[in-house]
Specification:
This protein is mainly α. Helix content is about 65%, strand content about 0%. The protein has one domain.
């Protein structure tokens, strides 16, 4: 999420011309950069929640970018919030 926000700012400022240039800068494929940048479609409160997820000390992240794809693909923020609630609800039920 932080990378998406940073790249969005670089593109908006003109310091980076496009996603392809951003991908080269971040050393990822264009497809991966598109996946990362799609996170900027999330409602602001979901972006904030993602940024403030507890750090993972051991093991894998309970919520991944792949988990967020269907949420970010939904353009209606009300529906996004419903999907997010289900996602974090299922994540909490697995870890607790």
């Amino acid at each position: 999420m932080a990378l998406a926000i940073q790249m969005e700012a670089l593109i908006a400022s003109g310091r980076v011309a496009c996603y392809a240039d951003a991908a080269r800068l971040a050393h990822v494929t264009r497809a991966r950069m598109t996946q990362i940048m799609n996170l900027t479609r999330l409602a602001a409160d979901i972006q904030e929640a993602v940024l403030f997820l507890a750090p993972v000390v051991k093991g894998r992240d309970p919520i991944t970018e792949r988990d967020l794809r269907p949420v970010a693909a939904e353009l209606n923020w009300t529906k996004q919030r419903e999907l997010w609630a289900r996602l974090i609800g299922s994540e909490q039920s697995v870890t607790h």
